[in-house]
Every structure is written in structure tokens, then in C-alpha cells.
Amino acid sequence: MASRDDSITGYRQALLGLNEVNEPHITFLTILAMQHAQHAYDIVCAIETHIEMVNPNAKLPAIYLIDSIVRNLPQSPYKFLLKKNIVHTFTSVFEKVRIN
To answer: Which domain holds residue 72?
Structure first.
């Protein structure tokens, strides 16, 4: 089993590749979240930080990732952890994303 630091570092690295809505990559990140549910708090923090830090065009794919995690892992701690900041997260994304 990977250490906490290795798990979080790996998840952050995988998040960097989420630049566009890419269903296989979102599925991969969802599965990774499932496999490392014992680090759910840190993974949620990584996702929220990723959303804050990336350019506006890369924010929406992370929203799709949140949706995928919540829908596919309903019995995990993710739903509870993600709902704590979901209003702020969504608001910050939609304030910065330019609708074409």
C-alpha cells in the first residue's frame, strides 16, 4: 500500500493532466480516489486547490471530476467532504470561466 504522501503526490500529478473534459481521465481519477479513500480529506483538498490554481479553462473538468466522485462513490467520505465547500467551489469556477 502506498504511503499517504505518495498517494497524495500521485493524485496531484494526475490532476495536472485534467486540462479538458476527458471522460477516461475523469474515470481514472475517480478510481484513484476510490482506491485511496483512506486519504479522502487530502484528495478533496488537492481537488479544491487544483480548481483554485488552474487557468479558467481547466476548472470545469475538475467540476466534472467532483460530480463523478460523488455519483460513483456514494458510500465514501467524499460526498460529505466535498459538500463542505461546494457552494464556494462552484461559485468561484463560474465567476472565472468565460462562457463562449
So the answer is: 4-96
